[in-house]
Specification:
Elements: H1 11-20, H2 25-32, H3 36-44, H4 53-87, E1 104-105, H5 108-111, E2 119-124, E3 130-136, H6 139-147, H7 154-158, E4 161-166, H8 170-185, H9 190-195
Antiparallel strand pairs: 1-4, 2-3, 2-4
């Protein structure tokens, strides 16, 4: 069951609720069908918070919890699909595993702290679905190049996050990841397919 809201939400309580739901002012405004300035003014105490906001916040929390459960279910399904697909791909050993590092936002300030080292990487969409698999002898340089591509490219339109694995065997590792992806989903990652290659 969700948290109990007060009968009248104060500006400080509204901010705490918004942050606990993991929403920016802009996202909360979109969910409540108001403009961001309204949320800003409520949180700063410049405007009175509407009484009906409590009900809207309860509804929003239930909606976000439901979406989180759906995302978790999709991840579980993908993991089991990957396990089944990996077991049936010729030439792959038990050691062949997906990249296990966490997803990071695909933005310059994060890419700039990665090492200039060889490795493989996956670019994912907002749902964590891999849209591109690549490798390079210099991961930071390659990821920066892709961030600076024309905004109309598949990568720039779809990739919102990335994860990397440093390895000297980056070309072989890229081929493994690519084969596992095709065995699991029956096709190349969306942006590899639009380029027509298995990587760089």
């Amino acid at each position: 069951m969700g948290r109990q809201y007060l009968l009248i939400v104060t500006s400080l309580e509204l901010r705490k609720i918004r942050l606990s739901l993991g929403l920016s002012q802009e996202k909360l405004a979109r969910e409540l069908h108001v403009n961001r300035l309204s949320v800003l003014r409520w949180e700063e105490g410049d405007h009175r918070i509407p009484f009906m906001l409590e009900l809207a916040l309860q509804t929003l929390e239930r909606k976000l919890q439901k979406n989180a459960r759906k995302r978790e279910k999709r991840k579980t399904v993908r993991s089991s699909e990957l396990a089944v697909a990996t077991s049936s791909v010729p030439g792959l050993t038990e050691a062949t595993k997906p990249i296990r590092t966490q997803w990071w936002s695909f933005v310059q300030r994060l890419v700039s702290v990665d090492r200039n080292a060889p490795g493989v990487y996956e670019l994912g969409d907002e749902n964590g679905m891999v849209v591109y698999i690549g490798s390079s002898d210099d991961l930071r340089r390659r990821l920066t190049e892709q961030l600076n591509e024309d905004p109309s490219t598949c990568i720039r339109q779809n990739a919102t996050q990335y994860r990397i694995e440093y390895t000297a065997e980056y070309e072989n590792r890229e081929r493994e990841l690519y084969r596992v992806h095709i065995a699991t989903y029956g096709k190349a990652p969306r942006c590899n397919d639009s380029i027509g290659s298995a990587g760089d």
